[in-house]
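Sanity check. The docking grid for NDP depends on where the pocket ends up, so I'm generating a full predicted complex first rather than guessing from homology. Inputs follow.
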Amino acid sequence: MGSAEGVRKRHTARPSGTDTGPKAQNGQLGNWGRAWEVDWFSLAGVVLLLCTAPFIVFFFVMACDQYQCSVSLVLLDIYNGNASPLSIWNQAPSLTWTAAKIYASWVTFQVVLYMCIPDITHKFLPGYVGGVQEGARTPAGLINKYEINGLQCWIITHVLWAANAYYFHWFSPTIIFDNWIPLLWCTNILGYSVSTFAFIKAYLFPTNPEDCKFTRNIFYDYMMGIEFNPRIGKWFDFKLFFNGRPGIVAWTLINLSYAAKQQELYGHVTNSMILVNVLQAIYVLDFFWNEAWYLKTIDICHDHFGWYLGWGDCVWLPFLYTLQGLYLVYNPIQLSTPNAWAVLVLGLVGYYIFRSANHQKDLFRRTQGKCTIWGRKPTFIECSYRSADGAVHKSKLLTSGFWGAARHLNYTGDLLGALAYCVACGAGHLLPYFYIVYMTILLLHRCIRDEHRCSNKYGEDWKRYTAAVPYRLLPRIF
Ligand code: NDP
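Predicted complex below; grid placement will be based on this.
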């Protein structure tokens, strides 16, 4: 406890918002990232999420299990007194040994792949960046190293899945769907365990005490995390592991399991299910292909590891990001050919904007601006910031290409892709549209949070940037 407590005292002794040291030009001294102090509004949001998020997941999954994914039927039944939240809860299948064994094997397998098989794919795949890579500079000024082998883990897992489905038949390809609700309990056990462990670890044996943040509010610290990059040993990085695997590797397997269930139930797989599988698989593969780039995104280089990431990655992501596939098992929709094409084009256009915008920023940062964006030399704003050790660092904010049109067109592309998954499910029910509503809230909140952080980090330079690129998500609109 000694070292963490020491850091806490040093940090909380600093008056909030009036950081010592020069900040007007360079932003606040090592004081970007999540908040040091919690306002009542943020605290209320945190408590609300802690109390409601598990029930939101439960509600949607049970709506499918008991009401064919019809949210309005659930609400109507509750309204008419034919059901109550308690009766729905009582009908939910409980935890089973089968599900516990499946989940324990799954997580163990992913840990083994992550820890024991160093990346070799980068030696064979041209353009792919894997193996040991450096993350971004933390507020305390550290640069962590990561073993990037997510693509390899994804490939091994899916090759084994295909080998089982077509050759070995050790288990049914519908195994995930068939154990879906018992698996929900297992993922919750892991999600809460890992978040609680990370919380306690931050007090007892933090990995980098200089990068811990304590607000003195237990709910906020539990949810938003205290440690920045908790690790066990040199390489087991909580954020990289839980963000990427087991949730995102599972995403495509879950969808395949839904497709297999459709085949089993109806004798065929609908074009909407194929579209959802293909578009989401592109997104997942993109994530793993760009895992090294991902080290520079907000999740890894700004967020602390708490319940938000720990529970969110174990439970929220696999259950709610796959709602479309689940819906299509209960409501097999065959889209007309023009509609199917429209969904595909929307999904691909969204993906193109998302990927190109992210690529432009990455290329620009990697080459220090010595590159071309849309065939021209990039324009940018020079800026500087200070880390907690007082050192001044230079940086650049791109103002051309997608980043000249709006400050977060990568989010806009992501939202278009998300909309495509939803419209693939037709217009019959609300449930598949939860994803676009959620993503819109998530990315809007993220945009505002990130801009607040950048403003703290870059100070006046950030103001020059927002004056040069005045729109956030939609040029000339927002
Ligand atoms: P960004 O990749 O947009 O990263 C934001 C950071 O980039 C800023 O904090 C700043 O960091 C830097 N930056 C901002 N503007 C510029 C600029 N003009 N030029 C150069 N650098 C700039 O955000 P995220 O990490 O949130 O998202 C990455 C992707 O992941 C997005 O496409 C998003 O849609 C997706 N995503 C998907 C989620 C999902 O659940 N499906 C969840 C979250 C994200 P610095 O301090 O280095 O200057």
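Relevant for the grid: The chain is about 60% helix and 5% strand.
Also worth noting: Residues 40-468 form one domain.
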